Prior knowledge:
There is one protein chain. By secondary structure, this protein is an all-alpha fold. It has one domain. Helices cover 75% and strands 0% of the residues. The protein is built from four helices and no strands. It has helices at 7-16, 21-34, 36-45, 50-62. The chain is globular.
Amino acid sequence: xxxxxxxxxxxxxxxxxxxxxxxxxxxxxxxxxxxxxxxxxxxxxxxxxxxxxxxxxxxxxxx
Length: 63
């Protein structure tokens, strides 16, 4: 069985390649703008609770 990555592991990978909080926010905004349903699916895949998904997507649509 495949192990799913969680949000903390994903964030650690972003940091490892040099993405700070601002760059990660930009990444989410780009994802939200170009593929909102894909962004939703990705956040669900990470196992985030719905409340957190709503926060991320709301913040992403403002940028």
